[in-house]
Amino acid sequence: MLKILVVLVKSMPVLSQLIANWERIDGRAKFKVFMMVLTGLLLLSVTLAVTIGPVYISPITVWKIIGTHAFGLEQGDWSRGHDQIAWLIRMPRVLLGGLVGAGLAAVGVSMQAVVRNPLADPYILGTSAGASVGAVSVLMLGYDIFPPYSLSIAAFIGAIVSFLIVMVLAQGSGRISPVRFILAGVATAYVLTAITSFILFIGDERAIRAVVFWLLGSVAGAQWEFLTLPAAVVLAGTLILVLYSRSMNALLAGEETSIALGVDPQQFRLILLTISALLTGVLVAIAGPVGFVGLMIPHMVRLVVGSDHRRVLPASVIFGAIFLIWVDVGARTFVQPQELPISIITALFGAPFFFFLLRWRKTSLAGGGQ
Amino acid sequence: MKLHVEDVSWEVDGRSIIQDVEMHASDGEFIGVVGPNGGGKSTLLRCVYRALKPAAGFISLDDEDIRQMSAKEAARKTAVVLQEMTTDFDFTVDETVAMGRTPHKGLFERDTDTDFEIIEKALKRVGMKEFADRYFNTLSGGEKQRVLIARCLAQQTKFLVLDEPTNHLDIRYQLEILDLVKGLGVTTVAALHDLNLAAAYCDRIYVVQGGKIVESGNPVEVLVPELIKNVFGVGSVVDVNPFTGTPRITFYRGTTGSANRLSLSL
User: Fold this and answer.
1) Residues of B in Cβ contact (< 8 Å) with A259
2) I want to staple A343 with a disulfide (CB 3.0 to 4.6 A). Which of A216, A232, A310, B259 is the partner?
């Protein structure tokens, strides 16, 4: 504790100087500081989220436990129970929450660039509606073919199938036009939602609660062994999207501008859509259609860092992770010992936070700069 | 950079928009493309900057077929100023000009100090350095156009395409923009509405009507009353601009001389 205090006191002059000169520091340096702060907050969030729950575990112990499991450090003076709660129950859940938040935010940014529309979110591909059909088929009709993965596999297949339908419908004379794409997505989602509703209507009433819970998203029940694949997909997909951030700027600037800047919009859209669909499919399969994150996190981040994707993407990824980690803390503590679905909290707390940001920064978005 | 457009045609749904267009620009030349609305000016330009794939014909830059180039390669040779950039997302002036570096950058490359220097120089050149942190959408028409030209400068190409760059601008900005472009000394092809501007700035002019080149040559040869009457359907008097020495065109409606009306009203 003393050490931390010393570091804090020592860094005070640096910090105060930073704050005093904030206006004169150029944008690039500011962004670096901002990203470092965000990354620090992410680490802090992971730590605190593991400490919180019916049993309190101190942050220091949390890191010691992580140390023993991840780096083979020596077992300390904590109980086996604490060890299991921290490492086996809370840690995978916190990490999964972070992954889902990061992935959805990245896909949200890329979809908004693909259709050049601020209202786009990961689900305009029809993925959430498609995944729902798959999940509901398993939950209500009992198509439990690959236990224990049936739900995830069915949801993933549903998501990809609906994405393919949307792609076929959106092709007009060999090109994908943003407007056609949005309309195709909306229409497909309506049809698939109708199918979900029909299955719910004819199905067993007792299973409906499980369906509703799934439809509102959750990272409950995360386990280490189910974490590897989603982690690999989300990290790889997100990294690729981040690498493409410069081209996303060009795409957002307009169809012809994009060509003039050397980014073939048709080809690039196809790349982004494919990565986004795979990512969303995996995310929906493991956590259900978590709402709000993919739409709003990018906008929240834009209000702070502007519209340049080279800033928006990395910042959205980290902020999305932080956001969902805390949302999940809420999901498991607000109505203890019950679990709340994530989408309820993301929207209920996220939207007012967004309005606050919107009023605070009037530039960018919503034409505030004009 | 030399441009060659040979027998280029483009059609949509079986309707021919331009046919067998031939156009050349030698190194450093300022070429004007004029003609009535719907005549095919923009289509021709769009073929040149690869937004459209010609149905027939051949376009080359320094004898290299532009359809054989990758999108990136082409963008390192050709920069384009479109009529206006509109987006719901607010980019700053700085970020907008930085987009010009896109074709020079690989997936893993970040902007280096050289890039920032290029961007800053480009902004200085168009007199927009103080606006670097402003949002593009908050600028006036003339300022926007200057920023877009700065983006072309950051793109560092030897060939520039401008699609009606002076539309919606007041006269001062029209002259400023064209002076700026002309001063760059790179090969330029510009679609222009204003024949007086075309006369003042272009080394050579191509007249496009009904999808065909109906006349080409230097402004003095091309911009004569007969051609203006045939192509635009208006009468005109062409004399010499006393200040610039370039052709000065005065228009009147109808084909009968305005001298009559003048004398009547006197």
Assistant:
1) 49-51, 71, 75
2) A216
